Hints:
It is a single chain. The chain has 213 residues and is mainly α. It has nine helices and no strands. Helix 7 packs across helix 8.
Amino acid sequence: MTLAEPILKRGRPRDTAKDEAILLAAGDLFMEHGYEAVSVDAVAQRAGVSKATIYARYADKDALFTAVLRQECERAVSPDSFLPAPDQPVRDTLILLATRFLNLVTGEKAMQMNKILVAETDRAPRMAQLFYETAVLSLKDRFAGWLRSETERGRLSVRDPDGAAWRYLGGVKGEAHLRASFGLPPIEPERLRAHIEDAADEFMRAHAVGPTS
């Protein structure tokens, strides 16, 4: 079982309303006060549940924090978005994934989390590690997995899917993420769309299937 996976116990069915209340309360508190300052007791009080109810679902605060991160990531970039229809054009998928990725990393909650991480890196390095493992690596791994499958199908030629995934996502993030980090106005929609399309076209040229690929 990974940190992100809730504990499953036999007995009565899980109360999904309590699940949602716990994650909502935890997310709000982590954003407001940072990781170290938030206790499981505080989450329980905010969610209107007992501490035992939380520990029935999550082994510790790390697991709860990881679940919050995973939920926020999947709200912006759902697992299904990395399993596109087999007949969808590769370029269209690259554009879709890049757009959803940017929506995630430049969103208000992502920027709040980034500020918390920067402020608490020295005091709580585990928090940054959890964010990296849950929010960053998981998305990269999904994208790299899709690149592998497209290479196996003969629609792309990607020798190093992990490296290619890092380069594409990093290049897409570029100016848009920097502007969001500094609190500057976002890129104009038309220019942002052109940036994403250019990135997809460059990726297609770099990994085209052919005699010299």
